[in-house]
Every structure is written in C-alpha cells, then in structure tokens.
Amino acid sequence: QVQLVESGGGLVQPGGSLRLSCAASARIFSINSMAWYRQTPGKQRELVAAITSGGITNYADSVKGRFTISRDNAQNTVSLEMNSLKLEDTAVYYCNADGLWYGTKWLPFTSWGQGTQVTVSS
Questions:
Q1: Strand, coil or helix: what is 87?
Q2: Which residue pairs, CB below 8 angstroms and at least 24 apart, start in 40-44?
Q3: I want to staple 98 with a disulfide (CB 3.0 to 4.6 A). Which of 4, 16, 19, 110 is the partner?
C-alpha cells in the first residue's frame, strides 16, 4: 500500500504561520488527488484543502485566503502553508491521498497519514 508521513505540526500563537508537509511512498504507485483534513475531539474529520494531479485546488470556506495547498508530483509530496492562524484552527491534521497502487496488478487506494497536531494558543 501507499504510506503517508506527515511533518510540521506544533504550537503557534494566533496570527502565526505553520507549514505542514506530507510525503507518499510505495514501490509503484500513481497519485490522483492529495488533501489535508483536520479533526477535533467530538467532531467529524473535515476537509481543509485538496489538490488534483493537475493542480486544481479546493478549500474549506473557513481557510480560504489563509491556507495554501501545493504539491510536487515528482517528489510525491503535498504541503499546506497556514497563515493568520486562529484559535479555531487547532486540530489534528491528516494527510490524504488516493490513486492507483501496483502490487501484482493496479488497484485503487486511499491512504491516510498518522496525523500531526496543530495547536494555536496564546
């Protein structure tokens, strides 16, 4: 299967910035879309931002104008630049990817990272 490893979470003050990164790895695979989700205790996981292999992006209304998603198709990485962070951005952020994976034949996959904590606090 395709594994996703995230990095870049941490503690930041309101108004500050953080950058999350996620790297995908497997022997043979092809990624279609990549995305970032977030989840807080007692709430459903929600989409933050997504990007297709062609670079088309989609953002949650709550982060438009503050967050920027980007990807490097050659390196199979996706990043989330978060600016003007607010208290309500505090959550565990998860990387997500879907596409095709080759074991003995091409099969679809959807993978999740382990999650990285982002805490916005003064």
A1: helix
A2: 40/90, 40/91, 40/92
A3: 110
Closest CA to 48 of 39, 40, 58, 37: 37
Rounded to whole angstroms, the Cα distance separating 38 from 9 reads 12
Give residue-wise pLDDT tens across range 59-103.
Answer: 999 999 999 999 999 999 999 999 999 999 999 999 999 999 898
Q: Quick one: tokens of 82? A: 């978060």
Question: 5-45: per-residue pLDDT in tens?
Answer: 999 999 999 999 999 999 998 888 889 999 999 999 999 99
User: What single DSSP character describes residue 88?
Assistant: G
CA dihedral 70, 74, 76, 35 (to 10 degrees): 30
